[in-house]
Amino acid sequence: MANVDLHAQTETHHHADHAHEEHHHGNFWTNYVFSEDHKVIAKQFLITGMAWALIGGILSVLFRLQLGFPDADLSWLRPILGGWLTPEGKIDPEFYLALVTMHGTIMVFFVLTAGLSGTFSNFLIPLQIGARDMASGFMNMLSYWFFFVSSVIMFISLFISTGPASGGWVIYPPLSALPQAMQGSGLGMTLWLVAMAIFIASSLLGSINYITTVINMRTQGMSFTKLPLTIWAFFFTAIIGVLSFPVLFAAALLLIFDRSFGTSFYLSDIYMVLPLKLSPLIPESQSSDTRPWWVLCYSSLFYHS
Predict the structure, then answer these.
(1) d(CA 25, CA 19)
(2) Whole-angstrom Cα distance, residue 55 to residue 65?
(3) pTM given for the model
(4) Are 121 and 131 in contact (CB under 8 A)?
(5) What is the pLDDT of residue 206?
(6) Neighbouring residues of 165: CB distance < 8 A, sequence distance ≥ 6
(7) Distances (CA, A) of 251 to 39, 232, 247, 269, 303
(8) Distance of alpha carbon 85 from alpha carbon 126, whole angstroms
(9) 170 and 302 Cβ atoms separated by less than 8 Å
(10) What is the pLDDT of residue 224?
């Protein structure tokens, strides 16, 4: 009987090793680009997140130069910023808002949420629960490439002629809902919303995969009470993401509808017929100590997430 069990274990290890060898004998594209291996995907998230951290840091340096040295002549930045510098060598006010907006977006979503969480969750969860890989390698791969596409769209928005989104990283309407509100409310804002919608889809795919892996793929004998604290942190982070990101997706989607399809989820009728000049942004009948209902509607969705 012992010989039979030993033979069965040998066969199992042989098949597992054979499958492992087949994975490593794939071509470059399947092993390193469109890989379903959790370690490779973790490295992809890490590299992309580090690139975004560098970009976000550069944007931070630019607007902090203006903030820290308001009287300094920054004309030496003209080869980089071009027309976004005033004749006096100061950063254009609207571009300053765009720098703050993009810095906040990059650091909160593309570095902390995707870069760090995507890296460590993918790399550590299978290793610490005794699984060979994530529950769905294909979903894991899609999660990264959705994130990559989102990153490309957000990066492109930095270089359009009207400038990137500049309504603050929380993107409150009406600055985000009215394309004519300011330069950064035009194409840059549209690209921001599209990039965020794709980013949220990426985060949801990853979160569902993490939760499924922790619940279903723990090694024999590892109960929930024996899980490492690291895995508990990843597990609850994924649960919070699944509960909150759909709300943020809805907020972004409704903003896209308001901007592109003439709806008024965040805008009352008076704003739908305003001319290009937005004055006043808040009706005179609106009490100065209260916030417009459409701002409350958006902020409720945003901060719920």
Answers:
(1) 10
(2) 16
(3) 0.81
(4) no
(5) 95
(6) 98, 101, 102, 105, 157, 171, 176, 184, 185, 188, 189, 191, 192
(7) 33, 29, 6, 19, 10
(8) 50
(9) yes
(10) 93
